[in-house]
Design brief:
Covalent carrier of the coenzyme of citrate lyase. Keywords: Cytoplasm, Lyase, Phosphoprotein. It is found in: Cytoplasm. GO terms for molecular function: lyase activity. The chain is α+β, with helices and mostly antiparallel strands. It has a single domain, classed as Ribosomal Protein S5, domain 2 (2-Layer Sandwich). It has 3 helices and 4 strands; from the N terminus they run βββαβαα. The protein is globular. The two termini are 22 Å apart.
Length: 102
């Protein structure tokens, strides 16, 4: 999936994460994370975001995530939503998305 514009999903409320995605020229996934639990879970948060991007076929993106203790499923959902908004996609294949964790 190609990111064509910047987009945001989520909030900075407790137990949520705000994910902002922007297109970049380089074919890489850049992740900037600010989290109150970064020491304990920063590596896992980054991994969930990166894995989600790879499953969606995103190759050139800058991700800025502001985490307030979100669970993995919330991180994944916010990332998927931000990517779909940034790619101007109106539909989701939730059956396929749900099979990632199976």
């Amino acid at each position: 999936m190609e990111i064509t514009q910047s987009a945001v999903a989520g909030t900075v409320e407790s137990s949520d994460i705000m994910v902002t995605v922007e297109p970049i020229q380089e074919k890489e996934i850049q992740i900037s994370l600010e989290s109150s639990v970064e020491k304990q879970f920063g590596k896992q948060i980054r991994q969930v975001i990166e894995d989600t991007m790879k499953h969606l076929g995103v190759q050139a993106v800058r991700v800025t995530a502001v985490d307030k203790g979100a669970l993995d499923c919330t991180i994944q959902a916010r990332t998927i939503t931000a990517v779909h908004r940034a790619a101007k996609k109106d539909t989701y294949d939730w059956k396929e998305i749900g099979s990632w964790n199976a």
